Amino acid sequence: MKISGAHYRTIWPTSGGTVRVIDQSRLPFEFATIDLDTFADAAHAIRNMIVRGAPLIGATAAYGMALAVRSNASDMYIDEAAQILQATRPTANNLAWALRRMRGALAGVALKERVDAAYREAAAICDTDVEQCRSIGVHGLGVIQALANTAGRTLNILTHCNAGWLATVDWGTALSPIYMAHDAGHRVHIWVDETRPRNQGASLTAFELGAHGVPHTVIADNLGGHLMQQGRVDMVIVGSDRTTAGGDVCNKVGTYLKALAALDNGVPFYAAFPLGTIDWSLEQGRDIPIEERSAVELTHVTGRTSAGAIETVRVVPEASPALNLAFDVTPSRLVTALITERGVCPASRSGLRKLYPDRGAA
Ligand code: MRU
Known about the structure:
The chain is of the alpha/beta class and about 350 residues long. The protein is built from eleven helices and 18 strands.
């Protein structure tokens, strides 16, 4: 995607062997990059959400393994790095998936060849992500086109959190079809859920859509249901951090409520994600570990003052406890269809199996 006319991915290796990422904690106010020098830097970037979004978490963990191998290629060190990276964020399946791929690529490789092998595999994981997200866009575009042809007017699409190019290596998952529809000349307007507590919608999705020129409006998380009742939402499309083999979709907290409102109002609800998001070992969403993050993310908000300073202020009484569970599960029965790099399928075991008869291979 382009920022001020220059093409960017969200992560790339530098000639010096470090790994450069966009520092998402500074957006939308400042576009800055940061260099990761060690696997501990990569773990810190994931844990503290300098990078975030399931596919990008996986890509950063992959390069984190390459950084680990660069400093020590022994099996013991690789094991330790993989364990530390795995513990950074428990919900996104792409993290374990990328680490498994890295371990597979290094297994049986001579010590002196491991650095090259690790960087090669991390680069391949990133390139695959770009291609998969592009394909998700193509398949999702078909869905949007069909709706646009029926509607014959601007299509209003609601999205939650940030499942755009910032959440992946490029293109995004839920936003990829939206970019393609916009670029193909379809009139789309996006309702952007602010996505409390960390406001990824207000700060990241709005930033991305604005930079690409896609018409959008930021709304309070709780407005979606009302807009659906008013006939002002034609479609919901979200990403996923982990989708079970049975088609349950785990995504940013608040997604489930949007799916309930969508069903009640006859609004189609789609989830878009690549292969690495699918957890073939789980049938039911209730078995997915839900990340609990610091209550400070809920009790405080960060923003820019009119004088230009970035400040964090408390919005909850000092004495009140707060619970910050970061994800929820939308059961497959509420999901109209899944959009992956292989096509569009019903949210069910048989639907996914048809798209992935070779499931488990990656
Ligand atoms: O906590 P985050 O910002 O990592 O959560 C991101 C989301 O919930 C996205 O919707 C999800 O990772 C899909 S990303 C393409």
